[in-house]
Amino acid sequence: MEAGTPDAGPDARTRPASGASADGSSPEQPRPRGRLTAAGALLALVAVLAASALWHLTQGTSGQVLADPEILYGSRLPRLAAGVAVGLALGVAGLLMQSLSRNPLASPDTLGVTGGAYFAVTAVTAFGLSIPFWASGLVAFAGGLGAAALVLGLAGGAASSTTRLVLAGSALALALQAGTSALLVLFDEETKGLFAWGSGSLSQLGLESFLRAAPVVVVGIALALALTRRLDVLALGDDTASSLGVPIRSTRVIGILLSVVLTAAAVTLAGPIGFVGLCAPVLARLLSRLVPALGRHLLLIPTAALIGAIVVVLADAVLRALIGAEGAIAVPTGVATTLLGAVVLVTMARRLRDAGPTRRPPSIRFGVRSTRRFAIVLVVGVAALAAVVVIGMLVGATPLLTGDIALWLQNQAPPLVAFALDERAPRVIAAVVAGGALALAGTVTQAVSRNPLAEPGLLGITGGAGLGAVLIVTSAAASTFGMLVAAVLGALLAFGLVYSLAWRGGLSADRLVLIGIGVWYGSTALTTFVLLRSNPWDTPKIYTWLSGTTYGRIWEQVVPLAIVLLIALPFVIAQRRDLDILAMDEDTPRLVGIRLERTRLALLVAAALLAAFSVAAVGVVGFVGLVAPHAARALVGARHSRVIPVAVVLGAVLVGVADAIGRTVLAPAQLPAGLVVAMLGAPYFVWLLWRSRDA
């Protein structure tokens, strides 16, 4: 296994069972006590599930608990049955993914399966296609399978490194989320109610959906149990398994198909309930340390299934106990499970082993570029930026001419033209300034983390800023200044949390990225919770802002960001030599006299501030901090003295173009700039991963 695998690690470092032989057969001297212990553990899990179910049935808006059959069979029992079925399915799906990849952080969420299934179902709904339940399951299966295949292919296979696999899945999930958000914004009438469902909701109108999904879950788990011997032997490594006659390729294909089928059944029944597929297998493997007999997949699969059901049912029950049955109606169960999953992801990431200098993840290596090329690229980029600003001022619901801009600058424009330009000017400037700021933040983040696939969003910074801003926007004391302060505080708190959790006598770049992703998932879940608890009339407006929009921008929101960018840009440029050295490895900076931790902290604080002020100005815009620095390196080489100015210009052009497209393509309707950026940046990211998969 590669350095950087968590201690709670894959089965490749452990025997398939307590005393089991290499071929997965039973040990020569069975231990009845061990068997009894395993049976006792399973019975204890069943008892916990039964107790949780009884508590779950007593909760609701009606005081009549079990006396009214109409309430019991019409509402509470269907909700409980859906929770159990979803938990069983996701627990087994996650375990299959982790065992097949020998990666303890693999799950339907981190491999993009849940996001792919949700996107497929949303797309069918948005275009008004009416399909039966079984067909919606096939749609979810197709979307999840496509996402899993893409992530595994781009990451370099199921056995790729933990950081690379999670990064690929998380970034693809970001792209799928952007596509889903675009459909929700453009087809708001057709997709009404899908936003809450998209976070995982157990609300059911009867037992019909459960009765249709249950056979799929039962058959899927039964087929998974039929693979147990192969999975036990596969845990010893591909070479050993192959020498013992296990067909590696077919086992992985069958296992992944079963995992996607189970995930699709869960998504079809209750929406994408997040991170159960990560939590349940991790907890099952921890339990197997106390009860070694559970390490065999024949027992590990039912253990993960039962724990998955307990996690879902308890999460729903605890949520309703904390905020009341009335309040829990609007808050999906998936919010609670995602928070739990984020905690598990961070905990696992903190246990990364520090095996010498942190290796640099595979990346595309760019050769040295000439000074002449750098000058040409920079001049062309600045000219393109100027053109984007002018075009952005001209296009929109009311097309204008360049002469109108000249009259407006002289305060002589007709009222209609003046009104249009007064509205467009701050949003155009907000787009280009935010794009430059996010690109600069991404350049710093990639250099410090030594990972060209990292960006501020995947380090939790933009998620924290978005959560802070939403807390103010949904409050009675909402104001532009308050949102700005809250976004900055949220970003800095998220950054401080990520940095402190990643610190273990030093900062591992892999650990920093994985913990950042965990904090990002957690802040996203909290943002969803706050949004769904707010005034429903404000939900579309806030959701659009969370997707990244320049609509309604005013100068008071743009000027602070411009000031921060003007201060941060010379500061980062002054650190260009340190960035070059930081991007090499962990030891070189110390050898040349750089105060590593102080320099890294100062640069990351600058990135956090840039991202925070960008969120306050234009909402949450992803992919800019990922795409712009990488494109700059491709054009002018890897030296930061050249990468920094080119990346800033490219980021400004990207968001400026996205804003212009979003305002004109569907006029008078408008598509948030953040969604356009994601749709433009996602193909580039896919290409980037594909090119670097064998590096």
Which term fits the overall shape? globular
CATH topology of the largest domain: ABC transporter involved in vitamin B12 uptake, BtuC
Structure annotation, total helices: 27
Our estimate of the beta-strand percent is under 5%
The sequence of SSEs as H and E is: HHHHHHHHHHHHHHHHHHHHHHHHHHH
Q: In the CATH hierarchy, what is the class of the largest domain?
A: Mainly Alpha
Radius of gyration: 26 Å
- If classified by CATH, what would the architecture of the largest domain be? Orthogonal Bundle
State the helical fraction.
over 70%
Low-confidence stretches: 1-35, 354-365
Measured distance between first and last alpha carbons: 17 Å
Average pLDDT, rounded to a whole number, is 80
Main sheet, how many strands, which sense, barrel? none
**Number of domains in the coordinates?**
2
How many β strands by DSSP?
0
Q: In the CATH hierarchy, what is the superfamily of the largest domain?
A: ABC transporter involved in vitamin B12 uptake, BtuC
Estimated structural class: mainly alpha
GO molecular function: transmembrane transporter activity
Keywords: Cell membrane, Membrane, Transmembrane, Transmembrane helix, Transport
Transmembrane segments: 36-57, 77-98, 110-131, 138-159, 165-188, 209-227, 253-286, 298-323, 329-352, 373-395, 425-445, 457-478, 484-503, 512-534, 554-574, 601-623, 643-661, 673-690
Main location: membrane
